[in-house]
Structures are given as structure tokens and as C-alpha cells.
Specification:
Elements: E1 55-64, E2 67-72, E3 78-82, E4 87-90, E5 96-99, E6 114-119, H1 123-126, E7 128-135, E8 145-153, E9 160-171, E10 184-187, E11 193-196, E12 215-219, H2 238-242, E13 243-246, E14 251-256, E15 263-267, E16 275-278, E17 315-316, E18 324-329, E19 342-346, E20 351-357, E21 363-368, E22 379-384, E23 390-394, E24 401-408
């Protein structure tokens, strides 16, 4: 049963559950190290600075199962989705209610299902939002694929209706396992719709501009078409026209730095490195697992130095990786020394990791937020609302997941 839980304190312990692939919880008795290593080779500190704001953590809704994303509407309502299907609204008065939606063609397997959410910048006028999800058709030969779908939601949040179905189609999915589905959606500062995709665990995809897998795509949110100033626009290849950046493994988060044009991706790596990357138009982020005979060679570096011009990562986890997911920037003077931090959720590491970047986007330090370190299990989505609060979803499964509201304490 989904129900609001009001004014609950921060230290609720939720056990981790098993998951597939690199998202699996570590074996009992092990954990990811507190320190993390940036791509430069300097080691980022693993403990919070001496002067930090205390955080208040409140559970807004519970009884969820693998909630994948959360967004906050201008009226204060939270919209949450669950990977296996289902939309939920958390109203400003604390009411938690289902949002009726046609998800009859949802493809759910492994890491793929109902995933990314984004609200239109003009949501107050058009009540339009976007999902990135697996669907049972649209792929080669009529098989499953991944699509971005545009919806409108009723004024009382009781139902949602598909209006552009699909807005963007033909994104490949691994139909045998659902592995590396990617599927994060975010609006860029210029109003473009960005879509992070996974490589489907197919070695050739990340470096191939002819496929939408292993990329960050950039599209017109009204039409789903490639924007004319995309780096490969006019190539004559419909896939390449949409590509903004490539050489990605599994984009799980996209974060826009307030007051700048900077966009960062958060990516699952193999057993040696997860990454945060600052995205630049046309950038190749260096993942190339195309092995002998078309095999998927995960022994190669996440950013391969053998690839000429490969963009170095802003941050890399080192081994063992932490399976990072959503990311967002904290903003507002009420956050004190945390103002401006990039915070990312860790599935394997079961914490929220904070990165302090300089103005150019270079790593200064990294540490765990104490109040969210091992207290709620696996962390999936992070979203900063217009109210300045941080909204978080957990990913433990079994109906044990929650939506959290995190604010600086008094």
C-alpha cells in the first residue's frame, strides 16, 4: 500500500535487495570505499568537510517498488514512476494517489522498463511531461525498443494521456536481458530535450554514430526531431543527426549546473570505474568495448586513452564501482557549504555522493552525505525542486521503497 508518512526522521534503515548486473548489492560484509578517485589520479576525500549543514530527511511516500525517477511540478506535486509500470502523484497536502496511464505496451526486463521522467519547461501552461521507457514493439523486426513518449496529465493528477507516441523512437534495447537501457531525460538550459541511452551491452554501439545506443541525444521537445545545430546534423543519417555526445556505456543521470550551460552525465562503468562527465557537443567519452568477433569486452578502460580526443572524466569511482544513478545540483544559500554540490545516488554503494567542482567543472573534492550513507539502502533518483529541497527515491524492491525530501536543518 502506498501511503504518506509525515515528519519521519532520517535514520530509517532499509535492507538492500539483489539486482541484476552492475547494479547488484555488494556481498555481505563488503562496501564501497569512502574515498573516490577522480580521473586525474588525485584521490578525492571521502569524509564530509568539518563544517557541514545538518540535513533533515523526511519520508513522503512508501510502499513503492523500484521507483526510477521523480520530478516536482510548480504546484508542489511530485510525480514518481516505477520501473515495472505505474505513475504516482504525491500531492502538496501529502495525499499519495495513482495516476492512471496506458502502459499496456511497456517492455520490462532487467534494467529496462518505465524509467526517465521530465516535466516540460512550460508545464504550467501545457501540463506536458515526458517518459523514457521500454516498449514491446518499434525495434528491428517489430521487437522491443526504447522510446521517449510525451504525455499530458489531468489537473487533479488522476490520469495521464499519451499525446506524442512516440516522440523519439527506435532507440535499441537488449531484448534478451534489458541490460544497459539508459533512459534518463533532462532539459538543457537552451530548452533542448536531452536523452541519455545505454549501450545495450553491444560492443560496437558506443562508437557507432549510426545507432542511438550509448549516446546522449538532443532533440526538439515539440517534434522529437534533431536540432539543426546538433554536431552531426545534416549527416544524412537520422540516428547521427540526433547524437549530441557518444562513447557512453550506460547513462543513468543527467544534471544541469544552475546559472551555467554546463551539463553532466552520470554513468555506470565496468568493474574498474564509474564516471561523471561534462558533456560537450560532439564529444567522444571513450567507451569502446568492441572486442574480438564482436564480443563485449568490459576489461577496457571506461575512457580509453587509445581513442584520440576522448574526453577525460570529471570524476571516476575507482574499484570497486558504486553503480551511480541520478544526479542533480544543490542550489541555494540555505545549503551553506553544500550550495553548488553535484550529488549523485549510489546503488551498490548505498549512499549519496557529493562532488564539489570548480567553475570550469574540475573536481575539487568528493565525499558522502552522512545522513544518507547506508541509511536507506540503494539510491536511485535525485531531483532538486524549485523549493530548493532535494527529492530522492530508493531502489530496494519488494515494495520497500520510499520517496524522501531532504533539506538543510535548522
Amino acid at each position: 500500500m502506498r501511503r504518506p508518512v509525515l515528519a519521519l526522521a532520517a535514520l530509517l534503515l532499509v535492507p538492500a535487495c539483489a539486482a541484476s548486473g552492475e547494479e547488484a548489492a555488494p556481498p555481505a560484509g563488503t562496501s564501497a570505499p569512502a574515498g573516490t578517485a577522480p580521473s586525474t589520479s588525485a584521490t578525492a576525500p571521502g569524509t564530509a568537510p568539518a563544517t557541514t549543514p545538518a540535513l533533515d530527511v523526511t519520508v513522503l511516500a512508501d510502499g513503492l517498488d523500484h521507483p526510477w525517477d521523480v520530478v516536482r511540478a510548480p504546484d508542489g506535486t511530485l510525480l514518481v514512476d516505477e520501473r515495472a509500470g505505474g505513475l504516482t502523484a504525491v500531492l502538496p497536502d501529502g495525499t499519495v494517489q495513482p495516476v492512471r496511464a496506458d502502459l499496456g505496451d511497456l517492455f520490462v526486463d532487467g534494467e529496462t522498463g518505465l524509467m526517465g521522467l521530465a516535466l516540460d519547461p512550460s508545464f504550467e501552461e501545457n501540463r506536458r511531461f515526458y517518459t523514457c521507457q521500454g516498449v514491446t514493439d518499434g525495434g528491428p523486426g517489430g521487437g522491443p525498443s526504447i522510446e521517449v513518449i510525451a504525455w499530458t496529465v489531468a489537473g487533479d493528477w488522476s490520469s495521464a494521456t499519451r499525446v506524442d507516441d512516440p516522440l523519439i523512437g527506435g532507440i535499441p534495447v537488449n531484448e534478451r536481458t534489458g541490460r544497459h537501457g539508459g533512459c534518463r531525460v533532462q532539459f538543457a538550459p537552451d530548452g533542448a530535450l536531452l536523452v541519455g541511452t545505454g549501450d545495450n551491452a553491444v560492443g560496437a554501439y558506443p562508437q557507432d554514430l549510426g545507432t542511438l545506443a550509448g549516446k546522449v541525444l538532443r532533440a526538439d521537445p515539440a517534434t522529437g526531431q534533431a536540432l539543426p545545430d546538433n554536431p552531426f546534423a545534416g549527416s544524412g543519417d537520422g540516428a547521427a543527426d540526433l547524437v549530441w555526445t557518444y562513447g557512453h556505456r550506460n547513462v543513468q543521470g543527467l544534471a544541469v549546473r544552475p546559472g551555467t550551460g554546463q551539463v553532466y552525465s552520470v554513468e555506470h562503468g565496468p568493474d574498474r570505474d564509474d564516471e561523471v562527465n561534462r558533456l560537450q557537443p560532439g564529444g567522444n567519452h571513450g567507451w569502446d568495448p568492441d572486442g574480438p568477433g564482436g564480443s563485449y569486452d568490459e576489461s577496457v578502460p571506461m575512457t580509453d586513452p587509445a581513442i584520440e580526443g576522448a574526453v577525460p572524466a570529471v570524476w571516476a569511482s575507482g574499484a570497486p564501482p558504486v553503480a551511480p544513478s541520478g544526479g542533480t545540483f544543490l542550489a541555494g544559500e540555505e545549503w551553506g557549504t553544500y550550495d553548488g554540490l553535484l550529488v549523485i545516488g549510489a546503488l551498490r554503494g548505498e549512499h549519496v555522493h557529493a562532488l564539489r567542482l570548480d567553475d570550469a567543472g574540475r573536481l575539487v573534492e568528493g565525499f558522502r552525505l552522512p545522513e544518507l550513507d547506508g541509511t536507506h539502502g540503494r539510491i536511485r533518483a535525485l531531483e532538486t525542486g524549485a523549493d530548493g529541497a532535494l527529492y530522492v527515491t530508493t531502489d530496494n524492491g519488494g515494495g520497500e521503497d520510499v520517496v524522501l525530501r531532504v533539506t538543510p536543518g535548522g
